[in-house]
Amino acid sequence: MKILGIESSCDETAAAVVEDGFKVLSNEVVSQIDEHKLYGGVVPEIASRRHCESIAGVTEAALKKAGLTLDEIDAVAVTYAPGLIGALLVGVNFAKGLSLAKNIPLIPVHHIRGHIAGNYISNGIKPPFICMIMSGGHSHIVEVKSYTEFKVIGRTRDDAVGEAYDKAARALGFSYPGGVQMDKAAALGNPEAFKLPRPRVESNEFDFSFSGLKTAVLNLINNSAQKGIKLNKNDVAASFQKTVCDIIAERLILAAKKYGYKTIVLAGGVSANSGIRKRMSEECEKNNFKLFMPEIKYCGDNAAMIASQAYFEFKDSKVAGMDLNALASLPIDEEMF
Ligand code: KG4
Ligand code: ZN
């Protein structure tokens, strides 16, 4: 079954063709980052407009790369939640048009479920496993019981880890999105230079709070500026990254042990982080867990992960009608269809 996937939930317009959930035939992404950089973050109105401009072209490119015409596509899949509502609506309406015109099923896909599926196309793995999804908008520890059954066991109470990265990066003078630049700077700095907080959430040992860590970095920068002390950016980035690694590694290993999983999986934009990848590899080896991480091209937003997840949603009878709507927020474990 060849599925055309469409993704437009944030600042990448993407289309891809994936066969039977695992085989990527094409994966095209048009990024808007250069334009949003000018404003220090994603401007929703601009994102929607750029999606409108790019979506037809990126879909044509994905079909061409796959060596297929629309007539050879068996179903169209689209990210319908969560994300920027105006951005999501572009993809949803475009996908509806294709579904109607070609009389093929329309498969709605949850963005975060898609991020997890980045591991099916990268590593060919099968559930069950425990997964940490870390992106610009989400930080969740999830039990992936089957391709379409999920249970959230930990989540952030405030900022997502990617958001904390981007805000700390901005305060250090890096351009948006600063996560990658923080990662590069961290490799050059001393991770022990600054002691930063590792906040715990009393009511749930697997929940996160990254806003305290972000605020501690902002305070460090402001206090130093007031005293006329010049901070070494690499040392700040390295200390921040080490703290994030400590928090994630500790909670994820503990959750895997408590819930009885032997396989740990990472997903989402921040799973491209070299410090987190290295640290989790070490921790999993030490504790005898199998670790899987998406290839870097499937960490950030893309449509191949959406087309992959769609295959399993379809097998589970999840097909939408022309009344499909986009949703700005929707828990990963909530059934909509
Ligand atoms: O999954 P994603 O592409 O979009 C969302 O669904 O949010 O994640 C984007 C986030 C941004 O916050 C970006 O700074 C972060 O992933 N990111 C990184 C790295 N690469 C991307 N953060 C830390 N280190 C990286 N290497
Ligand atoms: Zn994403």
Relevant terms:
44% helix, alpha/beta, 5-stranded mixed beta sheet
Describe the fold and architecture.
This protein is of the alpha/beta class and 337 residues long. The chain is 44% helix and 19% strand. The protein is built from ten helices and ten strands. The strands form two sheets. Strands 3-2-1-4-5 form a five-stranded mixed β-sheet, sandwiched between helices. The protein has a five-stranded mixed β-sheet with strand order 8-7-6-9-10, sandwiched between helices. Helix 6 packs across helix 8. The radius of gyration is 20 Å and the shape is globular. The model has no long low-confidence stretch (mean pLDDT 96). Bound molecules: 5'-O-[(R)-(carboxyoxy)(hydroxy)phosphoryl]adenosine and zinc ion (ZN). The site of zinc ion has 5 residues, from helix 4. The site of 5'-O-[(R)-(carboxyoxy)(hydroxy)phosphoryl]adenosine (KG4) has 18 residues, from helix 5 and helix 6.
Low-pLDDT stretches: none
Tell me roughly what share of residues is in helical segments.
40-55%
Describe the global form: globular
Q: Give the topology string: H per helix, E per strand.
A: EEEHHEHEHEEEHHHHEHEH
Summing up helix and strand content along with how strands pair, one would put the structural category as alpha/beta
Total beta strand runs:
10
Radius of gyration: 20 Å
Query: What are the bound molecules?
Result: 5'-O-[(R)-(carboxyoxy)(hydroxy)phosphoryl]adenosine, zinc ion
Count of DSSP helices? 10
Average pLDDT, to the nearest integer? 96
What's the main sheet like? 5 strands, mixed
Q: CA-to-CA gap between the ends? A: 21 Å
